Amino acid sequence: MLSGFTCILMLAVGQATEAVDLRSFAEIWCMDCHEEPRAKGDFDLEILMERVESGEAPDGLSRMLDRLTRRDMPPPDVERPDEAAYGTAIRQVQQLIQDHARTMTDTPRGTIARRLNRFEYANTLRDLLQVDLDVEDRLPVDEIGDGFDNSGDALSISPLLLEKYFSIAELASLRAFPEPGAIDPEVRTWSGDELAAEGAARLRGGEWRMNSRSTLRTRFTTESGGPYVLRALVRGQQAGPEPVRMAFFLGDERLDTFVVPDGLDVTQVIQIEHDLSPGSHVFGVAFLNDYYNPEAPDPDQRDRNAVLERIEIAGPQVPAFPSPAQIRLVEQFGALRGPLTLKKMVRELAERAWRGPVDSEAVDRLCALGTARDTPWTRVRDAMTAILVHPRYLFRLEPGDAVGNTSVRPLDDWELATRLSYFLWSTMPDDTLRSAAAAGELRTTEGRRRQIERMLADDRIHALGDHFATQWLQIRTLTELRPAESLFPDVDAALLDSMDEETRRFFNEMIADDLPISRLLDADWSWVDSSLAEHYGIPDVEAGGFRKVFLEGEHGSTGILRHASVLLATSNPTRTSPVKRGKWILEALLDDAPPPPPPGIPNLPDTDHLKEGATLRQIMEQHRADPNCSACHLRMDAMGFALEGFDAVGRYRTQQSNGMPIDDLGELPDGTLLQGALGLRDELLAKDSFVRFQRSLLKNLMIYALGRGIDDRDEATLDQLTARLGTDPSLRQMVVEIIESPAFLYRFDSPDAMMEEGGHP
Amino acid sequence: MSNSGRQLDRRSVLRGLGTAVALPWLEVMTPDRFARAGSALASAPVLTTSPLRSAFLFIPNGVDVESWYCSGLSDPYQPIPGGRDYQLSDSLAPLAPMREKFSILSGLDHRNAKALGDGPGDHARSAACFLTGAHPYKTSGRDIQVGISVDQFAAQHVGAATALPSLELGCEPALQSGSCDSGYSCAYSANISWRSKSLPNLKEIRPRDVFERLFGFGAPGEAEQTRARRLAMRKSILDFVRSDTRRLNDRLGVDDRQRMAEYTDSIRSIERRIERYEQETFDPEAFESNRPVDGIPSDYREHVRLMNDMLVLAFRIDQTRIATFMLANEGSNRRFPFIGVDEGHHHLSHHKGDPAMIEKIRKINHFQSEALLDLLVKMDSVEESDGSLLDNSMLLFGSAIADGNRHNHDNLPLILAGGGRGTLSPGRLIHHDPGTPVCNLFVSMLQRMGVPTTSFGDSTGMLETI
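ok -> structure tokens follow
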């Protein structure tokens, strides 16, 4: 499997010149500290250089590259090479690593067991059992690895998480497999001091005497949404011209008013059915029309009062049995009576949930978790709970062939179906995909192609926009951002949602209509709802959802470069940030992330009200003056300035908030001028940049597809895919090529396993 | 109007509604009620002496050192005779009522939070180093590595005494973006408790979830019998998945086996707890009526207070003796509108000498002291057979960045509160020689907790001063 290493000797010849240059760089700038006998950080560059010169590409090169790229080394307090020397050394190290990597194309890094992230978990549970438990909110936010939240490296598991999985599994089993007959919804009651009184109500003998206008309240929580019955047990004492009136409140909202018949000895039930969302609510029962007339001749007509015995809330009011999951099983296997049907059902559930075959022994054990007294559906519930906390459910495992043998092999049918489905849909394979897997259709390119086409045409493909696009474009946290309210009072949470949706819709359209990726940068249309249209100043968009609009004006045909989502996410709360925007272009679009600034460099003031007429540009000119800054900032700032025609919340503007005209001209280090968003767009579409853009998108999509970082060993794969895709492919083509690459179709060893086998030099 | 009725003030109303803003648990939850509600108090043998509890509280972004350190500290290493006659600084002024219950430790360093050749990223490094004393490996996801934290080191040695070996609390979820600080994974900024050098300990940020955890997987409205069956079933299921995992393991690669080890570890932890809960009685009524409302309070003050309540409750009913609480993630850009701070905390911490920004940082520091006071008061009002809960605890509060504007990691702002069951002598301002590692304090704390160790992290000895 490591045939690539035989090429090393041939490599050595080509590397000779570069190695010489690199050695002199290392000797001048590094080896004062990094050479035996006291090599700092245990990092001996003499040894490293010797190995490089003998034709190896040791791991230490990556460490060296990392430190140089970040400008961490040499440390800032000693003399440092100039930017040109840095650049040359970095290119040399990169070249050494890449050349070496290309000789070992057949050994990309393995994908490690991936735990389902909270979105995948929620989708899978929903598809499996047709229950909706708002799982996304019950599970903690997942760690991010390599830019995405589906990275196997970062998705660890801890006792707290397993506990949460247990609770969700129990609840889901309970919801999915209710007992026949046990259809009464949960009823909760409150009485006595469990209720809080406002106004003149007295607790006497366990009942509330509402002798004048008053309200009794309780706070309660609903685990799931749906229709609930809100109920109060009351009695009324009639007096005066009106009957007793009472009202139900939810929070401050009056839901309904009731007339309570006279009779202090007859309990009346007043109730309504009301749709509740999951969460916390305050339910109140009020006595509305107190009446007191001590002069009334009839003693019984002097005082109008109400009595509240207790409050009940019952719900959600759904016919529990049979549930959709039960209907599905019963249609397939018949009524659940004996152990035979039980086993069939449990096997079906386990195979779907575990995304692969399940042997009889496991089924037997799953069916035998409880005791003989348990009802059949109790057994299904217990088995389901076990299935849902099992590692085969929680993790996407691709085990080795046999005991101790962890070699490279093609994925089996089920593993392939699983990878396809989580890549494209962020959920488990559906029935069609399972059938295709069972029939062996996924083993052929044509068979896979049929499924991919089908999946791309399905609505579930929106998962790519929701999870891939938002993370690639770094707008995942958009809806948590809050632009300064004093400056942008109209930008509220709902508008941020709309901005997010614009980008996701646009991305989905790219896939649905199979558009070339250059449209991402030059589309002259977008998707807006009425509030977003108002924000942008686009006329004639009525309320009622999103619609496609074509944009006029010179800033119109610039694709995502003018999406408010992106422009806002790359701004400060009070002003635009050409630096952040430039960094975003380099990082997300061009995969050319600049190193972080050296320590001790102050940020620009956080306000647009720039003092004494100084423009942002005048302040940023400091970047040009200081060689520590200029190397990276000249490019970054130029690109960012080109977007100055859009304010900090993504609106087109013609002047800054201090009244100065917009200055959206950027000059790249080579003298190229970028005028506005159009200039930037043209630069990005120009050959060299566009090649980088295409490769960056491909690389990000590959990280997302494989659930692991892309390292030097994947360079060759990226080369091949890029060659096959040609210029300006569509996202669909990229998806297909990634799926058809060995990295996706095969299971490789984890890197540590490879080391242990002694393969790595 | 007929009867005037009993006038209830707003506070009682709120309390009745379960949204009580201040001190709800200590008033509503009497010990008797909680003994019935399933605490260890009901079944555990009566302890002649109360156990020693330890908590570690973290605040992000350093502090404004000028107003945080105490007068007499302009030269922070100048000893003050006796240490008791110091003057509380402006930022610490709210703590005055409890000044006899804590000491201020000056001069302690976290050397491993420094760059040491790794470039920028002081925020990530400081949180990662805060309880580990270790230098985190710079990575954006893969190969996360720092070191085991002091709370987990203790939990591994003495955590078996309680149902939960340790409790991890916070107010902010992990961040949903790749790199939180100059190439460091967000895991470093969002966690201070590390189970192992590569595995952060997830923290709980929802008060209700903590509450339900403390009462043994309680489910809303569940009868005793149902609960007992559910716990028994959990045990059977754990047996089942454990044996399956073992089989699966033989066919997995090294990395995957590592992940399965985390999984098996989690199974064991749940099993241990179930065994304990099975010996305890459970009062669904008390449980139900005392549960905090669902979700995260929109008011940060209330959120912090509720988490303080949960911490006190956990200690009081002896569900755990070790806890960590991150008042916010490192680098947090939270705003504090309730004290007139509308800009982000992290943004303000880089004030570059701007007096208006410094003033706001002081307000935030002031609020943090109030949050600590809330916890100390609550702990001190819990009477145990041999002093208050606070007397029987050690509580470390602080940050691993000293000056948020400078990002230095020496002379850290640290407060050690509680009596340590008679092993601490609080009420002082305690100076240390420059360069004394925080880890020396950890060694001394570990020894008091009964962990037989003479070193931790980069310690050079013990801290004899406390």
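Residues 227 and 293 of chain A are 41 Å apart (CA to CA).
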